[in-house]
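Recap for those who missed Tuesday's class. We walked through two folding examples back to back. For each one, the amino acid string is listed first and its predicted structure tokens come directly after. Nothing is annotated here on purpose, so try labeling regions yourself before you check the end of the notes.
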Amino acid sequence: MHINGRRVRYAVSAVAVAGVAALALSACTTSGSTGGSTSAKGGTVTVAVVNDLTSLNSQTPQGNLDTNGQVGYLDGSYGTGFQYIDNNYKIVHDDKFGTFEKTSDNPLTVKYTLNKDDKWSDGQPITADDMVLAWAIASGHYDSAKFDADGNVTSGTQYFAIAGSTAGVDSTDFPTISNDNRTITLKYAKPYVDWELVNPIAQPAHIVAKKAGLSSAADLTKLLKSLPKGDPANPQQPDPTLKKAADFVNTGYDITAFPTDKDLLVSSGAFVPAAWTPGQSITMERNKYYAGGLQPNVDKVIFRIIPDANAQVTALQNGEVDIINPQASADTLNALKQTSAKVLTGDQASYDHLDLNFGSPTFQDPKVREAFLKTIPRQQILDSIVTPVNPKAKVLDSQIWLPNQQPEYGNTIKANGSDKYGKVDIEGAKALLAGATPTVRILYNTKNPNRVDEFQAIQASATKAGFKIVDAGSPDWSKLLPGGDYDASLFGWISPGAGTSQIPQLFTTNGGGNYNRFSAANDDAVKTQTTLDKNELTKLEMNIDKTAFSEGYGLPLFQAPGVFGVNARVDGVKYNGNQNGPFWNFWQWTVKSSSTSK
């Protein structure tokens, strides 16, 4: 199960990063023209992406990477199914895949019904058993774990590890299943603000059952129905079969080469993974069994792994790729405008940020946290990375809202304490350190030019105050992020642009994206999921924002600008600033065939 848009969670992004509330797109601009051809069904579209594939399950903490999620968007393991989020950040139901409706407000009750033609890519039917498994993964229903301040399990059992949060879905009991095994009904014990984003499709239950030693999906459902709800106050011994199932879901889809185990490729979406050459390309082919409403016109989608923005532009110009979504820069935009490609630009539902690790001995002292944040040259970073693309851009001063989310952004920056870090204050940092010279290890993506620039700027500035900055950057940064073996991290969040479930993901103590082990905003973050009154919800969000600055959570840097380049042979690509990038409407893409006269 995901809350649509990667559990409405943030996705780690190499290109840039994320927003929280629904965003308004800036107007797209286009250049270039096409002609002399007609659109036809079939063909291949090749898209350049920054990150390589690491997992066929983007719903785990270590799998929470943009490329993994985009592959999941095509194969149905994330972001599509009962609904998707469009480029206006609106929820669109896919009634050809299945229907869902709220049947009661008190208690909140939602009914999901699959269409009878829905099948997995191996020809097996998609049934209520699959939805029950997705519910078990998302709800944390069977967990009895207690955690320490670093997020480690100290007692009991955590079965499924998810990148998002169980908040909201955790108030549901075992689903009611229809006699025809096509419908489930979820009843919530508490109100849930994002109920319409819950999409109960994840991994295939018949495959997970097989890996757990069971003979069928029905047997897995029978097992789940027989087990009690987990109780952290009275934990029981872990069920060995469920533990096998959970271990497979948690890590069994993590890959370093194209799987020889075809079970890992079974998909519910419009495409199926067909090939992967690490560091080079990922190939997706049409799922002949897919019966949903997002039927693609093209037969094949190829991801080309090209981290460098200039190399992406060159590949587009040479016809090696059809679509690019590079990090936006003045050089990139100028180079694109010199080509015949169509150029689409707009804001991204994303932001770059520096997070301090609250599990690190270095940052246990709040004075050290404040001192370090006083050295961060945010304006310098903005001027070097964003201003050449968007001269009107300003330093980002909220952990919750983006500048185009008004009036909330304008109101929060007046009250959240971000003005304390409005300018670099080396002398103020020195006074707080009182002669101390703390060592700070900073994790970042060494293959991302923007992150390299950010690190170098921070290193130069913080050193002036007495900090010893250690380069902990790595090309495997996303795999290292959950482990916490660093003092600070530089990366980006990119959002689906709808819903609020990303808040507990980041700010609850055990949130799947709380990599920096921050707990001070936990109570308010939990309340956001059951607060239906918009004014009260905004108050909670503003309080979280204020807490993040007062406790030294870290600093937001900037909202990322976005750019797509599209060559003349592909039609249907539209700008989208959320985590799905150009893939958001893959079913509308068509490939032009050259006209010939007779």
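Example two. Treat it independently of the first, because the proteins are unrelated.
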Amino acid sequence: MPNGAESLLAMVAAHDVEVVFGLPGVHNLAVWEALAASGIRMIGVRHEQTAVYAADGYARATGRLGVAVVTTGPGAANTLGATGEAMASGSPVLVIATDISSAVRRPGVYRGVLHETRDQRALFGPVTKAAFNVPAADELPAYVDRAVRTALEGAQGPVYLGVPTDFLTAEVEWGVRSATGERPPVPDLSEAVELVGKAERPLLWVGGGAARSGAGAAISAVNDRLNAPIITTYGARGISDHPLVVRGPVHAPVVGALWDEADLVVAIGTDFDGMMTQNWSQPKPRALLSINIDEAELSKNYPADVALLGDARHVTAALAEAVPVKKAAVDVERVNAAVREFVRADSPEAAVFLDAMAGVDATIVADMCIPGYWLGGFHHVRRPRGLAYPVGWGTLGFGFPAAIGAAVHGRTIAVVGDGGFLFACGDLATVRQEGLPLTVVVVDDGGYGMLRYDQQIAGHAITGVDLTRPDFAKLAESFGIPAVTLDGFGGLAEALTAEGPNVVVVNARLQPPVNTSPRWYRTTTG
């Protein structure tokens, strides 16, 4: 009879998981020992936060479940920041953490067992969609199945699964994967069609929920009839190649005007978060049609005139067959040209950077850093899931470790600052060990550039933001990874033609773009 670790991996594999990310510990070694016969690839990382960031990056790049396996206590606690980012961004991630043996656990008593936490699951409550403890060894496969389905079905998000270490070596029968849950039916569209029929200047606002649903083709289809400008949020960049996609953020005045002038906003898979709406200083739409799989998100930040509860892809596809054909009221080509000119006038150096990135055929993973903000706002993403950006929780240090997960899927470029890269630079060892097709672009501006800017515009002394850094090229080379150093972005396009793994260090300082809160052009509420 198989043991618990073997049954756990068999159930994970039954859900089409091909790769997991993790760090071994004394309590989870049975999982590592069972991996050889499981057919699952384990990417061994150097810190537990990397395991979850990488699982998140993999999920964002592929649309599949990302899985992290970590050990008890401090190992589990180390994942919390990365798990919170996955939660804020709606990423389907399963965090499997061992717990102390059920044989020594005494309910309500902290006994001082190695790695013991009074309530490990409770740590994950605020940063997960759901958190489960496996109550008995023979229930392990069923709980794995439940956790996977919870992460993937409905509004996606991370799930915690706690497994007492003794369950991994107990005899446990194979489990049976449950049937996939039924998707919600398409709601009645009559009120939505009527609302669309009245509109003369409709606007599509497409969010990360639409991207996770795979709604790109449906969005293109509905807009072949509406002929409206399409504004995508950070989580939806690249979702559609429709010619009416606006290539800039709503924070740029020429794009913000589209919102102001629209007489109907069709919101697909979005919650209108503060970062996209400049803390809701954008005025309430004259009319709002909201499509979302999560009922709580339909009218959370702007009240919807018509709310359609359901999967973004299926509801939008049905809407495409029902709405009337509209004549285009906005010249999106002119808007996009104006955006390009705006960037060149606002920051010529950023324009050079964006031009260098424009020809890249790779998934881009950006950190919370000034070059990442430029990419999130103004980079033309050419394919679905082509950009991962941690604006959900604003998690500095996301970019490099998340790119490790994306690179398991294919060619990836991480764009990070010198400060954020130092959070997880030890995982260059993982990149080298696994031979991942990853290029890390480290833009070195001498510290926390965004925070330095915040202090400067506030008239404060520059404090705590200028950092001592290593020679990043030599650091990469010490791991056996080729590296080059550039002064400015002039040679970046050529440097990006090299196959990874490699590191490109760019010594440069950029002004933050208008999609960063100090430069929001509307009057903000916070």
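Answers for example two:
The mean pLDDT is 96.
The first strand starts at residue 19 and ends at 22.
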